[in-house]
Design a protein that fits this description.
Catalyzes the formation of isopentenyl diphosphate (IPP), the building block of all isoprenoids. Belongs to the isopentenyl phosphate kinase family. The protein has eleven helices and twelve strands. By secondary structure, it is of the alpha/beta class. It has one domain (21-274): Carbamate kinase. Strand 7 (158-162) and strand 8 form a beta hairpin. Helix 9 runs antiparallel to helix 10. It binds adenosine-5'-triphosphate and magnesium ion (MG). Residues 65, 171, 173, 236, 240 line the site of magnesium ion. Adenosine-5'-triphosphate (ATP) is lined by residues 27-30, 65-67, 157, 172, 192-194, 197-198, 202, 234-237, 240.
Length: 276
């Protein structure tokens, strides 16, 4: 009896340890009303995430973005440029961190309601950065422990203490890069509000999905941005593509939307594939 039990436990542990991983980022453009000046969730998309996230094949690691819970404050108080020592900025750091924790809690509750146990890993309390693209302190042990316990880690873009400039906005895209480098998941999937990276004007009927993104295409986007100095035509897209290109060294990397989440969870993603 005891032996059987022991065998079962050993089997379960082995399965957990050998299961491949899938790294998902739910963008702020998806889970919030991203153009709102005040924090607003996109409840319809959050509920759909809850419906679709019934994964069995892979161990999940979840990252999420900030959208209206982060970007407006970060911009207003110049958090991207570091500490300016003003009391207003100090207050804004507290506020953005609280708002991000709130958004994380909402997403975790939705995931938990589907029977998936989660553990929040809060970057402002567990990570440090050296500029926007470099994480100097990363809580790998927390991620390992959480996964060994059969839980899904859920982390997010946040305002982190920064070794160079005091404060930094650490994007969920950069966290994806670090997680892909460490865990080499089978798939790393950015899920946003478009079905992938589009060419031409967004929302126009002439706009088509670009099936393969490589360094040449990213260079073209950068050139387009340079030619449109007055407007930020791509928003956060170029930063995301640069992170995705790096990730593609370690993992299949895709950019897609919620319509393809179920396929991604079956190991058959659609959208734009990012390759070296
Ligand atoms: N060619 C393009 N193809 C697809 N999206 C584009 C393109 N150009 C600009 N975008 C914009 O990029 C956005 C995705 O990047 P953005 O950083 O805004 O979202 P996110 O990463 O989901 O949000 P967050 O940074 O809050 O996590 C899309 O919502 C879209 O408006
Ligand atoms: Mg972004």
């Amino acid at each position: 009896m005891t032996l059987y039990l022991f065998d079962d436990l050993a089997m379960t542990r082995k399965e957990i340890m050998t299961k491949e991983k899938i790294l998902l980022k739910f963008g702020g453009s998806l889970i919030t009303k991203k153009n709102s000046e005040i924090p607003k969730i996109n409840i319809a998309n959050l509920e759909r995430i809850g419906e679709l996230l019934n994964n069995k094949k892979y161990d999940l690691i979840v990252v999420h973005g900030a959208g209206s819970f982060g970007h407006p404050i970060a911009e207003k108080f110049n958090l991207i440029d570091g500490l300016d020592e003003s009391p207003e900025q100090k207050k804004s750091i507290k506020e953005i961190r609280n708002q991000m924790k709130k958004l994380n809690q909402i997403l975790c509750e939705i995931i938990e309601s589907k029977g998936i146990k989660t553990r929040s890993i809060i970057p402002s309390e567990s990570m440090k950065t050296r500029g926007a693209k470099h994480i100097s302190q990363f809580p790998k042990k927390m991620f390992d422990k959480c996964m060994n316990e059969g839980k899904t880690p859920v982390t997010f873009g946040d305002a982190t203490d920064d070794e160079l400039q005091g404060i930094n906005i650490l994007s969920g895209d950069v966290i994806m890069m670090e997680l892909a480098r460490i865990y080499k998941p089978a798939f790393s999937i950015f899920i946003m509000d478009y079905p992938g990276v589009m060419d031409g004007e967004l929302n126009s009927t002439n706009s088509h999905l670009i099936p393969i993104i490589n360094s040449n295409i990213i260079a073209e986007f950068k050139q387009k941005e340079r030619n449109n100095k007055t407007t930020d035509v791509t928003g956060g897209l170029i930063g995301k593509l640069e992170c995705a290109l790096e990730i593609s060294q370690y993992s299949q990397c895709w950019i897609t939307n919620l319509d393809s989440l179920n396929l991604a969870l079956l190991g058959k993603p659609k959208g734009s594939k990012v390759v070296q």
